[in-house]
Amino acid sequence: MSDTTSGARTAREPDQIYNVLPQNAFTVDIEQKTLDNAHLLNDTVRNYSWSGISVVVKDHKTKQPKAILQDIDGIVEAGEILALMGPSGCGKTTLLNVLAHRDAATGAKVEGTTLVNGTSPSTGAFRRMSSYVEQEDALIGSLTVRETMHFAARLAHKNALSKTERIRRIDGLLDSFGLRNQAHSIIGTPIRKGISGGQKRRVSVASQLITAPKLLFLDEPTSGLDSAASFEVISFIKEVARRNNLIVIASIHQPSSSTFQMFDKLLLLSAGKPHYFGSVDGVAPHFESMGFAIPNHTNPAEFLLELMNIDFATHQESAVERLQEMQKAWAGSGSAIELSNLVGSIPAEPLVDAKPSRSNLPVVVMSLVHRSFIKSYRDIVAYGIRIAMYLGLAIMMGTVWLRLKADQADIQPVTNAIFFGSAFMSFMAVAYVPSFLEDRATFIKERHNGLYGPTAFMIANFLIGLPYLFLISFLFSVVAYWLSNFRPTAGAFFTWVMWLFLDLVAAESLVVLVSSLFPIFVVSLALTAFANGLWMSVDGFMVSPKLLNVFYRYVFHYIDYQTYVFQGMMVNEFAYREYSCGNRCELDQYGYHTGNTGKWVGILLGIVLGYRLLGWLVLWARK
Description:
Helices cover about 55% and strands about 10% of the residues. By secondary structure, it is α/β, with parallel strands linked by helices. The protein folds into two domains: about 15-345, Rossmann fold (3-Layer(aba) Sandwich), CATH 3.40.50; about 360-620, no CATH class. A six-stranded mixed beta sheet has the order 5-6-7-3-8-9, with helices on both faces. Helix 14 (about 360-380) crosses helix 18 (about 455-485).
């Protein structure tokens, strides 16, 4: 019987640990590091076990039930690190999601039990004691390593930690993960090189550990890394888990031999069924007993994956039969039976549930706004490129409609310029799509880890955009308004700026709604462009509101934010300026009247609020 199923683990001697880990892991004083990371110490969760885990979904082709996982058992003790391994499609990511209390798959039926200390915690309690690190590093590239840790701490603990305690925890984690020298380096953006891939992965893990979880779930932590970087990441994770008695469960694809040996336990899957659960040291004897000895100088992980993978077998029937025999051999082994008995007989212990951080919406919102502000001025993709784009648009507009006159011949060009200035400014808001999708990805990751909800995210997203949208509106107007020679008074100018600002706020809110509904770049871009094309067609310029088709008028015209921007700008220009045909001739053609500015502004703000509330509802519904 292996030591794994008995709940014990083989501890390495101190000298062995130093030989395994990179030297820079111990460049700081060990006693001080232990003190700095005292908050990480797990003294409440002794083990995490699961039994009979099965997941069934409906097959898209046959429409019949299809088992993704079948009857999976396991147990991990405090201080151990478990590897979920198997060929592609074996179900390891699905199992990881089930163990982490996440959605396994769309429409999946999940059976089985998961126990912490022999008891079943509530969803809230489990979320507070666990953390999940995604396969993709959903980090904000324009932040430094220390800033990433800083905001993770602020969002996790709200105002429960003092500034001194927060800095102490961050310093301890930076030292534990060998990131002290990279503390002030940015993560990295598409146009600015940052830290390495292995360092990014360590930052992802460290930023989750700031919440002091007892259970840590890692989805493919070595994906995309070379063997040296993979060993580096796993060795740091193992050391932190061992020192602080944490439970770590990681799905892993094809580790190197040295990385594979870093794990304490292995759960080997193929075709959704378990083929081995036990210590890493015990896997070779188990397969050797079945006649599948691991050759000398061969990576055990590579050998096992080739053994489990039958996708490329020349003789499929014999390969399937061999795989079934191996699975039956494991299911009937003494180790598997003892594991099942052990999991079913774990004594229930009272579970000490950490008190949830007190909800503090203003603190969370301000933290998110602060973080977004840093991103906005460092990452020119967020607003810098858009400001340059709008200035270029202003120069083009001002030089095309240059020095228009207040006479009959220029009334139509003035009207065209007003339409262009409002409609195309809002149309170009599609440039915000990639930036919002990046923010949304960060929100999804942090929401799953219980840091904040859609309300805080939506409020912060709205607030951070206001000063930049006003700056864009003002700079555009300074160039285009005076070059085109619109009504030359300060009041008229700032009224124009107001309408343009509201136009951009509404257009950006539309981007938020569409991108929340369809969080795929090409789809969001296409649908937002289509919506703006529709608004341009029915806002009253292309066809006068008096002549507009009844369907488009009552279904779309009155909810079109461009409608109120266009008529507000028209009134601002024509109602108070003498043209050779009289000062109301153009307004009469469109049926616009003065004195409705307040009503139009109110409707516009209502449309903005409607977009934002619908966007919030979408984010809230997609948990």
